[in-house]
Structures are given as C-alpha cells and as structure tokens.
Design goal:
Strand content: under 5%
Shape: globular
CATH class of the largest domain: Mainly Alpha
Number of strands: 2
Order of helices and strands: HHHHHEEHH
Helix content: 55-70%
Number of helices: 7
CATH superfamily of the largest domain: lambda repressor-like DNA-binding domains
CATH topology of the largest domain: 434 Repressor (Amino-terminal Domain)
Radius of gyration: 17 Å
Largest sheet: 2 strands, antiparallel
CATH architecture of the largest domain: Orthogonal Bundle
Length: 124
C-alpha cells in the first residue's frame, strides 16, 4: 500500500478533510491531494507531524506495516484504526490541551455518547 493511500485512509477514517489536514501541516489543500494521489512525499518534519496527528508510527505511514508485521487496520474502512490503549492515550493528550470550559464540555459530551451506546446495546 502506498503512502498516499495510507494517508487517505487515515484521514477519512478520522473524518478529517484535506483542507483541515492542510491547515494542520501549514500547507495548501492541493499539496495534501498530491500526497494522496500523485505520489508526492512530505518532508521529514511533516511526516513526523502526520505520525503524531494520526498516532501511528512513521513506518506505518510509509509502508503500512507496524514493527515489521502487516497492519490489518487499513484492509477495511470499518475496522478499528486504533487499539483501546492508543485511543485512551490520544484522548488524554488532546484533553490536556483543552481549556477548563472545553474539558467540562467534553465530559458532558461523553455522557451523551454513553447514553447513545446504551441505547444501541442489544437487549440480553
């Protein structure tokens, strides 16, 4: 799998537009499109930022492999992209960057999401 297709899959799985990713990397949207479709490659600094943004290794971004093993995460769009540990770690990293008000809002949102999950649980 190519860098461009891996980047596109990660971006879509995380519901990020090319414009949003471009803003994060401080590049133009066509630059992101070039990464995804025209075999253009980011410089090392941007590759590191992408790795941190999506919480994946640089190796994974470039080859689709993690630690020399095939990563099944990109074989189907609906499969989990992150392990539970990675999700918790990523959430905590983002949480500590928020203002107090935003943290309170996030906690309230989490409560709403818990209710939604409960409604979708199969009746046992």
């Amino acid at each position: 799998m190519s860098f461009g297709s891996i980047l596109k899959e990660l971006r879509k799985a995380n519901h990020i537009t090319q414009g949003e990713l471009a803003e994060f990397l401080k590049v133009s949207r066509p630059t992101i499109a070039g990464y995804e479709t025209k075999d253009k490659q980011p410089d090392f600094e941007k590759l590191i930022k992408l790795s941190e943004f999506f919480n994946v290794s640089i190796d994974y971004l470039i080859t689709g492999d993690s630690f020399g093993k095939s990563n099944p995460n990109l074989t189907e769009t609906n499969q989990k992209i992150y392990s539970d540990y990675e999700l918790e770690h990523s959430l905590m990293r983002q949480f500590i960057k928020l203002s107090y008000e935003s943290r309170v809002d996030l906690i309230e949102l989490a409560k709403v999401l818990q209710l939604r999950d409960k409604m979708h649980e199969p009746n046992l």
